Amino acid sequence: PYMKNILEYLEKTAEKNPHKIGFTDEKREVSFLQLMNNSKKIAGSLKSLSKNSPVAIMIERSVECIESMFAAVYAGCFYTVIDIHSPLSRINEIFQALKPGAVITDNDSLSIAGQLKYLSEEDSENIQLILYEEAVKDHIDNKFLSRARLYMIDSDPLYILFTSGSSGTPKGTVLSHRSVINYIEWVSEEFSFSQTTIFGSQTPLYFSMSVTDLFSTLKCGGTYTLIPKMMFSFPVKLIEYMNSRQINTIYWVPSALAIASNWNLFQYEKLMYIEKVLFAGEVMPVKHLNYWIRFLPKCVYANLFGPTETTDICTFYVIDREFKDDEQLPIGKPCNNCDVFLLTEDGRMAAPGEEGEIAVRGSFLASGYYNDPEKTEAAFPQNPLNKSYPERIYKTGDLARLNEKGEYIYISRKDFQIKRMGYRIELGEIEAAAISLKGIKSAAAVCDSESGRILLICEGKVKEPEQISETLKKKIPSYMLPDEIIKIKVMPYNANGKIDRAKLKKYITTDRKMR
Fold first, then answer.
1. Full-model pTM
2. Helical H runs in 365-446?
3. Helices (DSSP H) in 316-444: which residue ranges?
4. Which of 380, 376, 373 is nearest to 395 (CA)?
5. What is the helix (H) or strand (E) element at residue 213, kind and residue range?
6. 276 φ, ψ (degrees, to nearest 5)
């Protein structure tokens, strides 16, 4: 039967295996039936919202957070998970773009939710603050739930993810039920996820990679285990935790996988149950992958690639041959029901071996950016290869080429956007935050492609770099903070009056030697 709503995954699984544990964190575990019922109870608190209203969720990464996400969907709304460790100013910017009708929070995060300036006095009165601990005690209002469901269609939004924006304001990518269903049908079949799959989740719930293991668990009736973030600082404990939960499938960012090789971890501790190791979010250094393969040769390894705007990924490569430490992994071929092609600067299809920008079409695509028609128009234009009817594509801003095996090879970003620790970072957002500081006339962020370090170069009556760094912490998330801040007398400009970034590259090399 045709699926039109991701809640159908949850309901079918809860019917088939009601008492099977579906979701666990450090403190709690819930069966599919409990998760479904708790979500339905919380949904009752959202009765006053109109259809397709945004609901912000401000709860630490936990089973409670997941229940609140599905509660928003049961109420005929969509959700945005907020990183509660983000600076308040950034959360406020997200709220300004989102204008949520309600915020679901819990006792632990209530003080943060209470500090938000929201949008304005009138707006904050219109935003309902719902406390998880109280809402989950409500009775299930089946009449309200079936009425909400009656008018939901597959192109309705399911969630919005906010990514870094070049103008300094985060942009919200809108993903529909249809996109997620299409993606999950593919990924769970491709990697044979089933009710025996036990995912060890590393990624935050406000990050697109979490979509894969979360919704595959709903569909296949497996188990989704949230690994506490702190474990990644204590690698031996991490392995003990994974073994105690019998985790057999992971989908992590490469920097998390690199912990094993950096600590030579498998000499001391063995992963007992692992069968599938998937990774995405940044370039996977082959030397770290080879370390895993050496100790765990029987596992399936796969490199997944794609932006938030394609639900999670658009191409994949299952490792099927040996690579030397200094070689590069392909990003592979398009996922089923997702078309990927390379566009040249002049809008034609790139020939094999020729560099082009990765463009994507099909049902995986996001609906666009929330409350931002201009950015949507720029990133989701008409397909230049199709002159006959309206067809949107997504231009990723990533450059690639096809190798002789017909696999896509990633080259680099086209603009000032970089990937770091799995997060997409617009260098422009770091610059906008720096320029907003008192005394800074101009600022440019450059990335050292060799080491992945970010340098921030500033001109003006600038305080000491340490002070700038402290102030930036209040404006941008920790993963965006520059590794080094350099003061210069005069910023170099090119003929167009733009900052001459080529000249700034010298600070990467010369300043490495100077300091």
1. 0.85
2. 373-379, 427-435
3. 373-379, 427-435
4. 380
5. helix 210-220
6. -130, 130
Contacts of 408 (CB under 8 A, 6+ apart): 305, 315, 330, 331, 332, 333, 340, 342, 358, 400, 401, 402
The DSSP bridge pattern shows strands 21-24 and 223-226 to be: parallel
Instruction: Please give the C-alpha separations between residue 457 and each of 45, 189, 447, 462, 474, in angstroms, as whole numbers.
Output: 49, 47, 11, 11, 19
Per-residue pLDDT of the chain (515 residues; tens, 9 = 90+): 689 999 999 999 999 999 999 999 999 999 999 999 999 999 999 999 999 999 999 999 999 999 999 999 999 999 999 999 988 989 999 999 999 999 999 999 999 988 886 544 555 567 899 999 999 999 999 999 999 999 999 999 999 999 876 666 789 999 999 999 999 999 999 999 999 999 999 999 999 999 999 999 999 999 999 999 999 999 999 999 999 999 999 999 888 898 998 889 999 999 999 999 999 987 888 988 999 999 999 999 999 999 999 999 999 999 999 998 878 899 999 999 999 999 998 899 999 999 999 999 999 999 999 999 999 999 999 999 999 999 999 999 999 999 999 999 998 778 777 888 788 787 878 887 887 787 887 788 998 877 788 999 998 877 788 888 899 999 899 999 999 999 998 888 765 556 777 788 888 765 444 33
List CB contacts of 91: < 8 A, sequence separation 6 or more.
82, 83, 84, 112, 116
CA atoms in the 13 A half-sphere facing the CB of 18: 3
If you count them, how many residues does the chain have? 515
Q: How many CB atoms lie within 10 A of CB 158?
A: 25
**Alpha carbons 480 and 433: distance in angstroms, whole number:** 11
Angle at 343 between CA 389 and CA 447, to 5 degrees: 130
77 in Cβ contact with 53 (< 8 Å): yes
H-type alpha helices, 296-411 = 373-379
Tell me how far apart the alpha carbons of residues 179 and 365 are, in angstroms, rounded to a whole number: 6
DSSP for 153-208?
Answer: -TTSEEEEEEE--TTSS-EEEEEEHHHHHHHHHHHHHHTT--TT-EEEE-S-TTST
Q: Quick check: helix, strand or coil at residue 363?
A: coil
Judging by DSSP bridges, how do beta strands 171-176 and 368-369 pair with one another? antiparallel
Q: Given the structure tokens 């996400």, which residue do they identify?
A: 69
